[in-house]
From TrEMBL:
Cofactor descriptive note: Binds 2 manganese ions per subunit.
UniProt region (Disordered), positions on chain: 450-469
Gene3D superfamilies: tRNA-splicing ligase RtcB
Species this protein is from: Methylorubrum salsuginis
Catalytic EC class: ligase
Listed name of the protein: 3'-phosphate/5'-hydroxy nucleic acid ligase
EC number: 6.5.1.8
Signal peptide per UniProt: none
Length: 469
């Protein structure tokens, strides 16, 4: 099949212009993915620029601020969040926005959506607004019979996996999810990752925690992780499509704020991919929980889960993006039972909350405690130690002090702001016993060992040369 060129576009009735180079590249990419000429033509007509491409807004839209600051570090954090949001609210697809009490910057480039940011858009899905950790989420299983929390945590440590990569042969994704991955053009090439990374938890702030329900004393297991490599690859492909689209219809929009037109072939396929990744992630959580239940021989009394890095569509037709923001409105998903989970830090209770649907917050609540400064900045200024009375474990065997409680915002303050602004109603808590996190696996990562060995060999060669000379 011959490649599409500019003459073909002219023959199809398009006016030549600066956008032709990008349009030709897009048309050939669609053809390579199996699209016929009718589909390519329809898509190019949908994105053909007018005489006046979509501009950035001159002034930012107003946005809800549910973020208080008392200390110097909190004030600096809040100022950075507001600065990023002010730039972000100039993007023309955005209709509404808000920041949660746990908000903190997630990048240095101006207009990067902060953690704790919520954005509503019209006919647009912004991959940069959910970021690479698509469907980062929290799940809980409550066990029916009394049990020793240490035994539950031991069982979880035996069946889970933290750190880079995944594993195979432990448990496979459900057949429906596997079929969904294979049938979606954004996901099909990552079928091996969908299997290999299933029932694994990654690194960073992801955790497995065990504690007791304050209401009943029952033992509960809580996990926090996202879609791993599957979501990261979807994000990468989504950003490429978004940048191609936005470079044509709105070339002055910063690349990190690019979007996919929701009501387009790309938008519908990407939306479908997001739902498949959501199903994969939910199944990944509960596959681990089921392994633990079988290992300890205990029955499941209750379970629920919710995502906090995702895109939702509400009855008003807008696309609501939560970047580290917990949905707090009835029916945010088909499996919503009216409750969500908000973890704070490893030494504090995990909140079980009912929805409040506060209009000013776009119906969102915090996803946790957030940070007032970066990991590196925190470690430069502090020498943290594990909290007393908590069974803290690091899967790789090396502690990650940037995940200890002091690295996060004051949990009691965040909880007080949730109540003050009526963002969610806390109805129960998981009182902490212990948790497992990845730990500082990068300190002994293969690439780091290779670099250290290379440096050692170079130093040995230099010493040998000096001795010989």
């Amino acid at each position: 099949m011959t490649a599409i060129n500019g003459r073909d576009l002219i023959a199809w009735g398009f006016e030549p212009g600066e956008w032709f180079r990008r349009a030709v590249a897009l048309a050939n990419a669609m053809r390579a993915e199996g699209a016929d000429d009718a589909a390519i033509l329809a898509h190019l007509r949908a994105i053909e620029p007018s005489a006046n491409p979509i501009p950035m807004r001159t002034n930012a839209l107003e946005f809800g601020v549910f973020l208080e600051a008392e200390t110097e570090a909190e004030r600096a954090n809040a100022a950075a969040v507001i600065r990023h949001m002010d730039a972000l609210m100039r993007v023309p697809t955005i209709v509404k926005g808000a920041v949660m009490p746990d908000a903190c910057p997630s990048g240095f480039v101006e207009g990067t959506i902060p953690v704790g940011g919520a954005i509503a858009c019209e006919d647009a899905i912004h991959p940069g607004f959910h970021s690479a950790d698509i469907c980062c989420s929290v799940a809980i299983t409550v066990f029916r019979r009394a049990d020793d929390p240490k035994r539950v945590l031991d069982a979880m440590q035996a069946v889970t996996h933290f750190g880079p990569g995944g594993r195979t042969g432990v448990v496979k994704p459900p057949d429906a999810v596997t079929a969904g991955v294979a049938g979606n053009r954004f996901l099909a090439e990552f079928a091996n990752i969908a299997v290999g990374h299933f029932a694994s938890q990654g690194d960073g702030n992801h955790f497995a925690a065990v504690g007791h329900l304050a209401s009943t004393g029952q033992v509960a297991l809580v996990t926090h992780h996202g879609s791993r490599g599957l979501g990261a690859q979807l994000y990468k492909k989504g950003m490429a499509v978004a940048r191609r689209h936005t470079s044509i219809v709105a070339p002055r929009i910063p690349a990190h704020n690019a979007w996919i037109k929701a009501e387009s072939d790309d938008g519908r396929a990407y939306w479908e991919a997001l739902q498949i990744v959501r199903d994969w992630t939910k199944a990944s959580h509960f596959a681990l929980h089921d392994l633990v239940a079988r290992k300890i021989g205990n029955a499941v009394a209750d379970r629920l889960w919710n995502e906090h890095n995702f895109v939702f569509r509400r009855d008003d037709g807008l696309y609501y993006h939560g970047k580290g923001a917990t949905p707090s409105w009835a029916g945010f998903s088909a499996d919503d039972d009216g409750r969500t989970l908000i973890p704070l830090n490893m030494a504090e209770p995990i909140l079980i909350a009912r929805h409040r649907d506060r209009a000013g917050s776009l119906g969102f609540a915090p996803h946790g405690a957030g940070r007032n400064m970066s990991r590196k900045a925190y470690l430069r200024e502090n020498a943290p130690t594990p909290p007393a009375g908590i069974d803290v474990r690091f899967f790789c065997g090396r502690a990650d002090p940037s995940e200890l409680p002091g690295a996060y915002k004051d949990a009691k303050s965040v909880r007080a702001q949730i109540a003050k602004y009526d963002l969610a109603e806390v109805v129960d808590t998981v009182e902490p016993y212990g948790c497992i996190m990845a730990g500082d696996w990068e300190a002994d990562a293969p690439w780091r060992r290779k670099a250290q060995e290379k440096a050692r060999l170079k130093a040995d060669a230099e010493r040998a040369a000096q001795a010989a000379g």
